[in-house]
Amino acid sequence: MTWLLVVCTALVGLVIGSFLNVVIWRVPRGESVVSPPSHCPGCGHEVRPRDNIPVVSWLLLRGRCRDCGTGISIRYPLVEAGTALVFAMLTLAIGFEPELPAFLYLGAIGVALAMIDIDVKRLPNAIVLPSYVVGGVLLAAAALLEGELEPLVRAVIGGAALYAFYFLLMLIQPRGMGFGDVKLAGVLGGYLAWLGWGELVVGAFAAFLLGGLAGIVLMVLRRAGRKSHIPFGPWMLLGALIAILWGGALADLYLDSLVV
Description:
This protein is mostly helical and 260 residues long. It is built from nine helices and no strands.
């Protein structure tokens, strides 16, 4: 039953990933994600339904438009496959629980926000701010279905705490932390605290650890300098994913080492 659910959510992830490619391209440009329909940027032809099958169509077309031969970036199938993988991992971590839809929603916006931040070094309000409402409603519904309000209260406290922590960092070092990161921190803090305080701490720590390591690697490769602005959103999101998957076990391992 678990693996059937994983396969189903992965297939849904493929479809969602196809839509996320539209979101990633259009939202930073202030364009509608529903109109006009997907089309080739080279010749303007609308993408046919048979050419819009996630991953498969790109492979069959060999990464080119059917009408004009314009190259289609490999990032499109990678986003689709990556979203499917994220959905599968989240399903394995959460299981068939009422909060699974909330975490799948987080996975979807996480993929979009990571790619947008890499592209334009910005986390759009159009995605981040509605996530407070959507995530809050989905988690509240899960709490009611489970008949347990403690995780929801913990989520509210955790979201506010991580938001405040990032806001303080932004005040101390405004050039190193953007307000988009602060707003995203509130969303991630709520989700991680829903799972537990250990997951919240691991997710917050992992973000800075991964971001710091990435900065060092880029400087060693001379792709960035000390004053270069490196998008932090992707590392926040990756840190949150690590915490969702293994945060509880990592926190327990750390506490056990202190006791020993």
